[in-house]
């Protein structure tokens, strides 16, 4: 290994305030990198490809909490439902229903985050604020007894303008308060705000993030 994962991990962790947890994004990195972070105490890892995740799950310690953070096709849910700790990238009722169905088969309740589309870029996935409001006001989600909505996730625009990033994250944080008040005021486990990556997690911390998803700053650049 030509990268000091443990020391990179420590540096990132030292910057996180109480109440903000780290998702170490290990996609495209080999098991030995994950093991190095695990040895240093990290337990939450993020992956974005179902096949890669299933393989790593089989080979790595079972007390790892895996977060799925990529685009998830409904026909792939069944492969990760037996073990996934959180699916952060839920952006449709169709996907949520499939997660519910597959979680029921494993007798589990799967925690999910609703992914918001706030960034100005076209390509980003996720629900617009209005689409998210509509999904929640529809109420069908309440019937999904094997899915628990734990909070919101978003990716800010990939720009250098720190103020734009902060604006987008603040929009997400304010929207969290709106949704919390309207639908989850009596549910303490609706509490997660997942934003911040390697280039903007310091901004995310200031914008009320509870989960930062950091890959490159810990594991180095990905080799695709
Ligand atoms: C890859 C990825 C990250 C981590 O990105 P880095 O820039 O390597 O920190 C975070 N969130 C999502 C959704 C990702 O796909």
From TrEMBL:
Annotated CDD domains: PLPDE_III_YBL036c_like
Claim: Acyltransferase is one of the keywords in the record: no
Gene3D superfamilies linked: Alanine racemase
UniProt keyword annotations, A-Z: Pyridoxal phosphate
InterPro entries, sorted: Ala_racemase_N (IPR001608), PLP-binding_barrel (IPR029066), PyrdxlP_homeostasis (IPR011078)
Domain Alanine racemase N-terminal, residue spans: 5-221
Top-level lineage group: Bacteria
Cofactor: pyridoxal 5'-phosphate
UniProt-recorded Gene Ontology molecular function terms: pyridoxal phosphate binding
Residues carrying N6-(pyridoxal phosphate)lysine: 27
Role description: Pyridoxal 5'-phosphate (PLP)-binding protein, which is involved in PLP homeostasis.
Classification via PANTHER family: PROLINE SYNTHETASE CO-TRANSCRIBED BACTERIAL HOMOLOG PROTEIN, PYRIDOXAL PHOSPHATE HOMEOSTASIS PROTEIN
Family per similarity comment: Belongs to the pyridoxal phosphate-binding protein YggS/PROSC family.
Protein name: Pyridoxal phosphate homeostasis protein
């Amino acid at each position: 290994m030509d990268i000091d994962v443990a020391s990179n991990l420590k540096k990132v962790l030292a910057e996180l305030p109480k109440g903000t947890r780290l998702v170490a994004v290990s996609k495209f990195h080999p098991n030995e990198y994950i093991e190095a972070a695990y040895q240093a105490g990290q337990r939450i890892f993020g992956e974005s490809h179902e096949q890669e995740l299933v393989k790593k799950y089989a080979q790595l310690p079972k007390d790892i909490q895996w977060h799925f953070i990529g685009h998830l096709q409904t026909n792939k849910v069944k492969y990760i439902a037996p073990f996934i700790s959180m699916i952060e990238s839920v952006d449709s009722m169709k996907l949520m229903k499939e997660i519910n169905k597959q979680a029921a088969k494993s007798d589990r309740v799967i925690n999910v985050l609703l992914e918001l589309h706030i960034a100005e870029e076209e390509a980003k996935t996720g629900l617009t604020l209005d689409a998210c409001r509509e999904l929640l006001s529809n109420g069908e989600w309440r019937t999904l007894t094997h899915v628990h909505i734990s909070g919101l996730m978003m990716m800010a625009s990939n720009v250098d303008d720190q103020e734009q990033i902060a604006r987008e994250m603040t929009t997400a944080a304010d929207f969290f308060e709106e949704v919390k008040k309207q639908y989850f005021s009596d549910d303490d486990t609706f509490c997660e705000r997942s934003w911040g990556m390697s280039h903007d997690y310091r901004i995310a911390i200031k914008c009320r993030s509870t989960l930062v998803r950091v890959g490159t700053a810990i594991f180095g650049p990905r080799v695709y």
